[in-house]
C-alpha cells in the first residue's frame, strides 16, 4: 500500500477556513481548525475555535475538554480548571488521558485538578 503524502498544515488550515467562511456553524470544521491551529502554535486562534465549538455544542463534553486544554495552554489556569470540571459534569471520563495530556501540564499539581482525578478514579 502506498504511503500517504505528508500533511501540509497550512494548506489544511486554508482549506478548512474556506469551508468555515461558507458554513460558520459547521461544528466538525470548527473542531478540526481548533486542533490545527493549536498544533501550529496558534494558541489564540485555537482558543477562539474551541470557544466557538462550545457555543455550537454546549452539551459536548469533549468540546469542553478541548477548551480546557486551550485555556491551560494560554495560561488561564482558573478558567481551564472550571472548564475541565464542566467537561466532567457533562460526562468526560478519560482520566488516564487527563493525567498524561501534555496540554494540561500546567494544571496537574493544582488541588482542583487532583480532586477531579480522585473523583473520577473510582469510576474508571
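^ C-alpha cells above, recovered residues below v
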Amino acid at each position: 500500500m502506498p504511503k500517504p503524502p505528508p500533511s501540509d498544515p497550512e494548506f489544511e488550515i486554508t482549506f478548512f477556513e474556506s469551508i468555515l467562511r461558507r458554513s460558520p456553524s459547521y461544528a466538525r470544521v470548527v473542531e478540526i481548525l481548533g486542533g490545527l491551529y493549536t498544533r501550529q502554535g496558534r494558541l489564540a486562534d485555537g482558543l477562539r475555535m474551541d470557544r466557538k465549538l462550545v457555543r455550537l455544542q454546549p452539551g459536548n463534553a469533549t468540546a469542553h475538554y478541548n477548551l480546557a486544554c486551550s485555556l491551560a495552554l494560554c495560561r488561564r489556569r482558573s478558567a481551564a480548571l472550571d472548564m475541565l470540571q464542566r467537561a466532567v459534569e457533562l460526562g468526560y471520563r478519560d482520566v488516564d488521558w487527563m493525567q498524561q495530556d501534555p496540554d494540561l501540564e500546567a494544571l496537574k499539581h493544582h488541588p482542583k485538578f487532583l480532586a477531579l482525578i480522585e473523583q473520577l478514579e473510582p469510576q474508571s
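The mean pLDDT is 94.
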